Amino acid sequence: AIMTFTCHNNHVSQVRHERGKRLWFDVSEVPVDETIVNAELRLYQNANYTLRLPTTYTVTIYLVLLDGSQKELEYVDSINTTTGNEGWLLFNMTGPLTNWVVFPKTNRGLYLSVHAANRLSHEMQPEDIGIVLAGDRESEKQPFMVGFFKTIGVNNKKRNRKTRELHRRKKSDTESSYPRNPFSDPESLWSTRSCQMQSLYVSFRDLDWQDWIIAPDGYHAYYCKGECNFPLNAHMNATNHAIVQTLVHLMHNEVPKPCCAPTKLSPISVLYFVYEKNVILKKYKNMVVKSCGCH
């Protein structure tokens, strides 16, 4: 299975370095019994030819630790880049994601640090070398994390049932004191433009079918509408194919985005005339949209 996670940022108020960015990911929807095969953080860098020498910079990702220990930041990964580079920067996030899923209370996010390769003490703003941050206008270049999971079998699921129940109880106990997202309200993340179900009532009279349909007079059919923009969150019911397609779309614009379409349909029963004499009650499949998703 593949899951993507949108990014939220904020300044790290309790960390000494002020010229960096805080990146936070809500991973609470990852089942605790999923095996994490790999995880990546991706940051987009626009080319910036306005900066003078030095042209080589180091981008470093740290794990934020605010648990009372003396160490405030823990090194995760780093990469060297130049001001002329254009494209995605990839960082290994397997360790932090695994830790956040097992111990959700430790999820204090990441710290992004940028400095000249030969001046480690001089920290810069990520935007200075063209890195796109959360909240910037370039929506398709926002930072994101992608996780690759191996789902366990049925027998192993039974074996780990107690582990899941313990995780749910632990999560429930901490929800009141520890917010899922310490930087923003999760409800505000919902976009009315995202793929979702819309109301639609179909009147058989409007279709001029009242002469042969006895009942019902109409029904609530609903329909799917909205965008399938990256990242595809859990409420979008995206398939693995759709998630991969959005990743490819980020690299190659000629590949279209996934489409918003029904993921579940239900039947309705219709009473109607046949040859003006016989009456038949028939159930028609796939008539009502029950849920929508990106495909």
Automatic annotation (TrEMBL):
It is found in: Secreted. GO terms for cellular component: extracellular space. PROSITE patterns: TGF_BETA_1, TGF_BETA_2. GO terms for biological process: developmental process. Its main location: secreted. Residues 159-189 are annotated as: Disordered. GO terms for molecular function: cytokine activity; growth factor activity. Gene3D superfamilies: 2.60.120.970, Cystine-knot cytokines. Residues 168-295 form the TGF-beta family profile domain. Residues 159-171 have a biased composition (Basic residues). Transmembrane segments: none annotated. InterPro entries: Cystine-knot_cytokine, TGF-b_C, TGF-b_propeptide, TGF-beta-rel, TGFb_CS. Keywords: Cytokine, Disulfide bond, Glycoprotein, Growth factor, Secreted, Signal. Belongs to the TGF-beta family. This is TGF-beta family profile domain-containing protein.
